[in-house]
Amino acid sequence: MDAFDADQRRPAGTSGLSVPMRHLALTAYTDILESVRAKWFLVYTGVFGG
């Protein structure tokens, strides 16, 4: 079995990342969004006295 055969069995719409790496990427992305949200909340509270 070569790499081409493995690519043919990959479900449609999946990237070349393995499942743990996709989970890690999603976790990192979510963590970045949460960090931006927290910083925005800090600015909003400072400006509007929340």
Map the helices and strands.
Layout: H1 3-9, H2 19-48
Report on the structure:
- The chain is an all-alpha fold and 50 residues long.
- The protein has a domain at 18-50.
- Helices cover 74% and strands 0% of the residues.
- The chain is rod-shaped, with a radius of gyration of 19 Å.
- The end-to-end distance, rounded to whole angstroms, is 61 Å
C-alpha-based Rg, rounded: 19 Å
- Beta-sheet strand percentage? under 5%
Put simply, the count of helices is 2
Query: Spans with pLDDT under 50 lasting ≥5 residues?
Result: none
Principal-axes geometry comes out as rod-shaped
Structural class: mainly alpha
Question: What's the average pLDDT?
Answer: 82
Quick one: how many beta strands? 0
Helix content: over 70%
Q: Report the order of strands and helices.
A: HH
The biggest beta sheet is recorded as: none
